[in-house]
Amino acid sequence: MIPAKTRHSRWQFEELLHYDILPGVSAKIRRFCIHPLGVMVLAVLIAILCGLIVHPRVFTLAAGLAIVATIGCCWPWLTLRGVSATVAFPVERLREGESLRVEATLVNRFPWPAFGMAIGNLGSSDSVEAADGHDSNDCSRLAVLAVRLGTIPGRSRIIANWAFKPPKRGCYPLEIPRLMTGFPFGIFQAGRAVQVHNRLLVWPRTYPVGPVPAVADADDADGTIPRNRAGNAGEFLGVRPYRRGDSPRRIHWAQSARHDRLVVCEVQSMTRAKILLILDLHPSHHTEGVSGSLEWSIRIAASFAEGWLTQGAEVGVIWDGGAIMPRSGIGQLPQILDALATLPPATRTLSELLRMPAVRDARAAVRVIITTAEAREELPESQVEGFRWALLRREGFQAGSKKENSRPVSRYGPRAWLTFDHADSVPEQLLSGWSEARHGS
Length: 441
Fold this sequence. Notes:
Oligomer: single chain
Mean pLDDT: 82
Radius of gyration: 31 Å
Low-confidence stretches: 124-144, 217-229, 404-414
Shape: elongated
CATH topology of the largest domain: Rossmann fold
Distance between the termini: 81 Å
Number of domains: 3
Helix content: 25-40%
Number of helices: 12
CATH class of the largest domain: Alpha Beta
Structural class: alpha/beta
Strand content: 25-35%
């Protein structure tokens, strides 16, 4: 039996062997050793060592390997000295889920052809097509996009285009594109920056939403006329049976007594609601990724803004780092969607966000907070009242989460004006998740 002191000393020694003193240097060494050029350099060094120890003839192998490595590095570098590229997007704005064709213009000034050309760091690609219509090598699943362009003839100018489907909102290209080639041996990938003619702004995906929430003290809309649709002000339209959630002030007592059931009045809509969307994007409250709760929160905010602006409401958005105050008009929606497409990482918590003057001063507006149910639970009771809560269950928006395993968020009671258990529930809840949407008023 090994004494306890000996076992402890052995454990400390093993821990010392596994401790990385310089993790940054170690990572660079590991990347160099698995890189094709690093393998060639190691092979040359080993061949030189064998020539010194075993036999001088091995120096011939070392020389051959060194020549191959030199050609493999110099040829791609020289090729790119005479080749340039320009990338252009046909439109300035796009929505998530839509695709377009990106066009690249390539010029080869050398008299010899340039082989194995590719453009990288655009985002994602579904297919690549050369200018003459022939399909190129498929690269749709590469982690870092490398749109293969094939061969560019000497002293020529070609135009290549390919289908491009942005994976998420943002300003594309996300990184500076690079024109790359590794011909002839692929042991070294030379690259140079590609000129980008214009940027592509990708808006969040939106879904249809229900009617504007009822506001008892909404401001009259100047220059508008009453509409023959149910609202909270205006002329009398008719009566209908009482529905759960209707205001007691709208009960028609005479008709209710006559029919022995509650009957409510419906009046015209003459007001323009003022709505302020408060977007909580703190990383500790959300799951990351294209299907995470953070991206879905932004899509929900964009859907509310687009749908309610179309219905005539005044809509604004507040987030950590900026604010767009409520107003209507055709210029409000592009301004909101542009801002939502390029939101910076948040640093303020939800509690700090609710203490902003812009939030406190908007008490006359319908203040809708879009956040996760877990973030709502962290707030004190003093900061909960006076808002409408659109809550996402964070676990339901993680990678691999299943609809049948989702846990409802009904435990948040009446304060949860709107709840989203998972991504599949978002379109349905946006259409009929609150009382005005269910009642059609």
